[in-house]
Protein: Transcriptional regulator TbsP-like C-terminal domain-containing protein
Organism: Methanocella conradii
Amino acid sequence: MKLNDIVASMSGYLSEQTIVDFIMYSKAFDDTRYSVLKTKAIDKVSIALLAAAKNGELFYDVVQWGEDTGIASKATFSRRKDFLVNLNVLFEESVKTPFGRPKIRLKLNEAKLKECFGIQA
Protein backbone atom coordinates (compact mmCIF):
# COMPACT_ATOMS: atom_id res chain seq x y z
CA MET A 1 0.00 0.00 0.00
CA LYS A 2 1.35 3.43 -0.93
CA LEU A 3 1.82 6.19 1.62
CA ASN A 4 -1.07 8.27 0.20
CA ASP A 5 -3.44 5.30 0.48
CA ILE A 6 -2.35 4.58 4.05
CA VAL A 7 -2.81 8.23 5.03
CA ALA A 8 -6.27 8.37 3.44
CA SER A 9 -7.31 5.21 5.29
CA MET A 10 -6.41 6.70 8.69
CA SER A 11 -9.12 9.33 8.56
CA GLY A 12 -11.95 8.48 10.93
CA TYR A 13 -9.77 6.22 13.06
CA LEU A 14 -6.94 8.49 14.21
CA SER A 15 -6.58 12.21 14.89
CA GLU A 16 -5.47 14.64 12.21
CA GLN A 17 -2.27 15.37 14.14
CA THR A 18 -1.46 11.64 14.31
CA ILE A 19 -1.84 11.46 10.54
CA VAL A 20 0.48 14.46 10.09
CA ASP A 21 3.03 12.87 12.44
CA PHE A 22 2.75 9.56 10.55
CA ILE A 23 3.70 11.37 7.34
CA MET A 24 6.58 13.15 9.09
CA TYR A 25 7.95 9.93 10.63
CA SER A 26 7.51 8.04 7.35
CA LYS A 27 9.65 10.62 5.57
CA ALA A 28 12.23 10.65 8.38
CA PHE A 29 12.58 6.85 8.42
CA ASP A 30 12.77 6.80 4.60
CA ASP A 31 16.38 8.00 4.97
CA THR A 32 18.87 5.39 3.72
CA ARG A 33 20.51 5.07 7.14
CA TYR A 34 17.37 3.25 8.33
CA SER A 35 17.25 0.76 5.43
CA VAL A 36 18.44 -2.15 7.61
CA LEU A 37 15.64 -1.51 10.13
CA LYS A 38 12.83 -1.32 7.57
CA THR A 39 12.33 -5.03 7.07
CA LYS A 40 12.36 -6.15 10.71
CA ALA A 41 11.75 -3.26 13.07
CA ILE A 42 10.66 0.05 11.60
CA ASP A 43 7.90 -0.52 9.09
CA LYS A 44 4.60 1.28 8.51
CA VAL A 45 3.08 -0.46 11.55
CA SER A 46 5.87 0.78 13.83
CA ILE A 47 5.66 4.26 12.35
CA ALA A 48 1.91 4.33 12.93
CA LEU A 49 2.47 3.29 16.54
CA LEU A 50 5.06 6.04 17.03
CA ALA A 51 2.75 8.69 15.58
CA ALA A 52 -0.16 7.40 17.67
CA ALA A 53 1.97 7.40 20.83
CA LYS A 54 3.10 10.96 20.21
CA ASN A 55 -0.55 11.97 20.28
CA GLY A 56 -1.73 9.69 23.08
CA GLU A 57 -3.98 7.53 20.89
CA LEU A 58 -5.52 4.33 22.18
CA PHE A 59 -3.83 1.13 21.03
CA TYR A 60 -7.28 -0.31 20.31
CA ASP A 61 -8.00 2.45 17.75
CA VAL A 62 -4.70 1.91 15.96
CA VAL A 63 -5.26 -1.84 15.77
CA GLN A 64 -8.85 -1.33 14.59
CA TRP A 65 -7.60 0.89 11.76
CA GLY A 66 -4.89 -1.60 10.82
CA GLU A 67 -7.21 -4.60 10.77
CA ASP A 68 -10.06 -2.82 8.95
CA THR A 69 -7.75 -1.58 6.20
CA GLY A 70 -5.67 -4.75 5.92
CA ILE A 71 -2.42 -3.04 6.96
CA ALA A 72 -1.60 -5.72 9.54
CA SER A 73 -3.10 -8.07 12.08
CA LYS A 74 -3.57 -7.41 15.79
CA ALA A 75 -0.68 -9.80 16.46
CA THR A 76 1.65 -7.77 14.23
CA PHE A 77 0.67 -4.55 15.98
CA SER A 78 1.23 -6.21 19.36
CA ARG A 79 4.68 -7.50 18.37
CA ARG A 80 5.75 -4.09 17.05
CA LYS A 81 4.38 -2.36 20.15
CA ASP A 82 6.24 -4.78 22.42
CA PHE A 83 9.47 -4.17 20.47
CA LEU A 84 9.13 -0.39 20.88
CA VAL A 85 8.16 -0.74 24.56
CA ASN A 86 11.25 -2.91 25.16
CA LEU A 87 13.38 -0.17 23.60
CA ASN A 88 11.66 2.28 25.98
CA VAL A 89 10.59 4.38 23.00
CA LEU A 90 6.92 3.75 23.82
CA PHE A 91 5.17 3.19 27.08
CA GLU A 92 1.64 2.20 27.94
CA GLU A 93 -0.88 3.88 30.17
CA SER A 94 -4.00 2.05 31.33
CA VAL A 95 -7.25 3.96 30.76
CA LYS A 96 -10.36 2.93 32.66
CA THR A 97 -13.55 2.56 30.69
CA PRO A 98 -17.11 2.77 32.00
CA PHE A 99 -17.62 -0.87 31.06
CA GLY A 100 -15.42 -3.68 29.87
CA ARG A 101 -11.69 -4.02 30.11
CA PRO A 102 -9.38 -1.01 30.44
CA LYS A 103 -7.83 0.31 27.24
CA ILE A 104 -4.16 1.04 26.62
CA ARG A 105 -3.10 4.58 25.76
CA LEU A 106 0.20 4.78 23.90
CA LYS A 107 2.73 7.39 25.01
CA LEU A 108 5.99 8.38 23.34
CA ASN A 109 9.31 8.73 25.13
CA GLU A 110 10.66 11.54 22.96
CA ALA A 111 14.14 11.52 24.48
CA LYS A 112 14.51 7.78 23.85
CA LEU A 113 13.22 8.17 20.27
CA LYS A 114 15.94 10.72 19.60
CA GLU A 115 18.57 8.58 21.37
CA CYS A 116 17.67 5.36 19.51
CA PHE A 117 16.91 6.72 16.05
CA GLY A 118 18.14 10.31 15.96
CA ILE A 119 14.67 11.54 15.16
CA GLN A 120 13.14 14.54 16.89
CA ALA A 121 9.53 14.01 17.99
